[in-house]
Give the backbone structure.
Amino acid sequence: MADTIKLRNAPGSYSIRAAGAVLGESSNVIELSEGNLAPVLYVPREDLAMAFFDKNDTTSHCPHKGDASYYTLEAKSGPIKDAAWSYETPNEGLERIAGHLAFYADKVTVEEV
């Protein structure tokens, strides 16, 4: 794991919403900080309505975190491609984010409640 990546349990409870729907609520969110980048919140899948998410064929690779898979959000207004991503088998030291989704802020709102 890169020395610049830090994981911590995000305090509080969070609501996850998009396209007028609540997709989940969680008090088990992990905050990932990487260098000077804005922190990213990773939400456990068991706290999300995963029926709204379909894994698609988009992938990416981060040398520090590993290979990411992407998800399309099936909203009532239509699909939102690549709304979320996940590191299914993250690199050593980041195993805690496996089984979690992170979201693009312009597509999904993750807000502390």
Q: What stands out?
A: Strands lie at 5-9, 14-18, 21-26, 30-34, 40-44, 53-62, 66-75, 78-86, 100-103, 109-112.
